[in-house]
Structures are given as structure tokens and as C-alpha cells.
Amino acid sequence: MQIKDRIGILGGTFNPIHLGHLILAQCALESLDLTRLLLVPCAQPPHKPRANLTAAHHRLAMVEQAIEDNPWMEACDLDVRRGGVSYAIDTVRELHTANPAAKFFFLIGTDTLTELHLWKDIYDLLPLCRFVAFTRPGHDVPALQKADLHLDAPWPGRLLDNVVTGRRIEISSSDIRYRVAEGMSIQYLVPQPVAIYIAEHRLYQGG
Predict the structure, then answer these.
(1) How many structural domains comprise the chain?
(2) 154: preceding bond cis by omega (within 30 degrees)
(3) 191 within some domain
(4) Contact indicator for 39, 77 with CB cutoff of 8 Å
(5) How far apart, in Å, are the Cα atoms of 59 and each of 7, 21, 118, 126, 162?
(6) How far apart are CA 74 and CA 146, in angstroms?
(7) Residues of the domain holding 53
(8) Angle of helix 56-66 relative to helix 192-200, nearest 10 degrees?
């Protein structure tokens, strides 16, 4: 019997991608028994300020550089090619069309659980994929109640049942951008090919 494709989706600005993203991705591959994981850089984020957002083609290229030696991870350019504000519902619908027999797992941080009710067409999106929330440093998951998610039943319960304990790696893209602008090292924070790409293209150099 053919094994059903189990596809993970990890979206983000990836401005830039760093080892925290990749450790989360690897954790998802193993804990969810995924056949592959798509890293999807957005064109423009709907809920984040666009200031300091590096051009999408650079962010996509850095994702490609970061995972070039991992056969289970793929850089997905759907959002970048579509352009404009990137919404998860549009991406997941396109992926469903291209992979109608696959089962999709949408990866988020637990801090995003209380924001999902603000996402575009959330009640159309929730049945299309299984949301899996990974713990992040400083976010107390046990304190979350169903009412905190502001979603209709049965979704709060289902979402809270799909929380996975990830590795607590405190690396942020904003700190990496700051360090580059200040001339500080980003060694051990990003893969070496990403550090080289940032230097070669003079990204995050500041004013």
C-alpha cells in the first residue's frame, strides 16, 4: 500500500532564517513522521510591520541555502511568486490542489494560538490541515484555556490537543539583524551558507 504523503508547512518571514527555525523544522519532521517539510517565506506578512523586511527573493534564497543539504526539507516559493500580502489560506489551497492525496501539518508557535482567530478565512483553513503548535521560550502553554483562543468549538480543544514540546532555542531574526548592523558575529546563529549570503549581498547593514 502506498504511504500517504505527510507534508509539513512552516511559514514565516525568515528575515533571515536561523538555526532556531531549522531545529523546529527537524523536530517536526521527527515528531510528526513527515515525509517532507516545506519552508514558505511570505511575500508580505499580514500581521507584522513591513519595516526592515528584506526583499522576498533574498529571504527565499537564504532558505534555499540553509537547507540545501537536507533532502527532507524544501523551500517553497508559492507566496513569493504570488506576491502581495501572504495569507495561509491561499498557500494551503494551492498545496492541496497540487497534492490532493497528501495530509498537511501547519506548524506554528504556541504564541500564535491566541492569534489564529484573526487569520483570513480561518474556518476554511482549519479543516484543510492539522495545526501543530510547538512550545516557545517564555510561553506558558498549561495556562491557556479554550476561551483564550476565541474560536468556535471544536477548534480550541483540537488545537490545544496538538501542542508539541520543542527544543527551547532562543534565537531571533531581529537580534541577528541587529548584530549584523553593529558589525557583530552571527556565527552559530545561522547556517554558514546563510552568513556568507548575508555578507555577500550586504544585507542588514543598517543606515
Answers:
(1) 1
(2) yes
(3) no
(4) no
(5) 22, 13, 25, 27, 29
(6) 34
(7) 6-170
(8) 150
Give how far Cα 89 sits from Cα of 11, 25, 73, 129, Å: 12, 21, 21, 10
CATH number at residue 155: 3.40.50.620
What letter represents residue 4's amino acid? Answer: K
pLDDT of 104 over the 50 cut? yes
Q: Is residue 204 part of a domain?
A: no
Q: For the whole model, what pTM was predicted? A: 0.93
pLDDT digits (tens, 9 = 90+) for 141-194: 667 899 999 999 999 999 999 998 877 788 999 999 999 999 999 999 999 999
Q: What is the pLDDT of residues 66-92, one digit of tens each?
A: 999 999 999 999 999 999 999 999 999
Q: How far is CA 3 from CA 102, 103, 115, 146, in A?
A: 10, 11, 34, 34
Give me 42's grid cell: 511570505
Residue 14 maps to a domain:
yes
* Residue 50 is assigned to a structural domain of this protein: yes
